[in-house]
Design brief:
This protein has ten helices and two strands, in the order H-H-H-H-H-H-H-E-E-H-H-H. By secondary structure, the chain is mainly alpha-helical. It folds into two domains: about 120 residues, no CATH class; about 100 residues. Strands 1-2 form a two-stranded antiparallel ribbon. A hairpin with a 2-residue loop joins strand 1 and strand 2. Helix 5 packs across helix 6, helix 8 runs antiparallel to helix 9 and helix 9 packs antiparallel against helix 10.
């Protein structure tokens, strides 16, 4: 357990905490500047407040799962490093999978504190950082071009009273395609496990994620239906977060029930 005392040392907390504090302050500065810029160009303050409320709820609910990920990884990697990785730019599914793969590549087998060595931790930490840094690097070179493609469609007036749309915006189709691809990849992985027979047709091992996905989709459909029938536009700010909360509650209930 000596390695864990090193990974939980005050120096590690100071280094990781300092980086997290810097990122948090940067986020606050940009949020304030964005709000002021929105007021300057005439964006309705009510809309901006709804965006803030939606962003807050969408950030708080997933953070519960991320906190559980920090707790799970802290048993083998210490608390500061998982805290840093999952607070700045990491993702729960990515960090755990890469940490497991790196531990096997480092020769210590399954990720655990009993097998952890300084060399193995260095390999795991390097791989976790190196594989996810390319978004930050590439945006330096193609960020402006990408932002232009995310802009709204350009509308030009060819004749009095007639308008012709220019290049279609890239942002909405790209985000929709990325989200559908992400969801499909996870659902397909569980379906593949069941079809291959490796899942042994156990509910909690393979069927539970599919059931939770179906319940979350049904919850979102209910929110959309309420919005359309009751003209309750305010529900858009909470539909995604509400669906996630219902899905998490369903996972706990079904897991204990079956």
């Amino acid at each position: 357990m000596e390695i864990l005392s090193m990974l939980n040392s005050p120096v590690m907390y100071l280094i990781c905490g300092g980086i997290i504090l810097f990122v948090a302050v940067t986020c606050i500065v940009f949020a304030v500047r964005a709000y002021r810029a929105g007021r300057a160009i005439g964006i309705d303050e009510g809309k901006m407040k709804r965006v803030i409320a939606a962003s807050t709820t969408f950030a708080v609910l997933p953070s519960v799962g991320i906190l559980l990920g920090v707790i799970a990884l802290s048993g083998s990697l210490g608390t500061p490093w998982p805290w840093l990785r999952l607070s700045v730019i990491g993702a729960l599914h990515y960090e755990t999978q890469v940490a497991e793969a790196a531990s096997e590549a480092a020769g210590i087998g399954r990720l655990s504190a009993a097998n952890m060595t300084p060399e193995a931790f260095s390999t795991i930490a390097l791989l976790m950082s190196f594989c996810i840094m390319w978004g930050m690097v590439l945006v330096i070179f193609n960020g402006k071009a990408y932002s232009r493609r995310l802009a709204a469609p350009k509308v030009t007036e060819t004749q009095p009273g007639k308008k012709k749309a220019g290049l279609a915006a890239f942002g909405d189709p790209a985000m929709t395609a990325m989200f559908i691809g992400l969801v499909s990849a996870y659902i397909a992985s569980y379906i593949g496990t069941i079809v291959s027979g490796n899942g042994r047709f156990t509910f909690t091992g393979s069927w539970l994620p599919l059931a939770v996905a179906a319940i979350s989709g049904l919850a979102m459909a209910v929110f959309i239906r309420i919005r359309e029938t009751k003209k309750a536009e305010w529900i858009d700010s909470f539909s995604v977060a509400g669906s996630m909360l219902i899905a998490m509650a369903a996972a706990i209930f079904l897991g204990r029930l079956l």
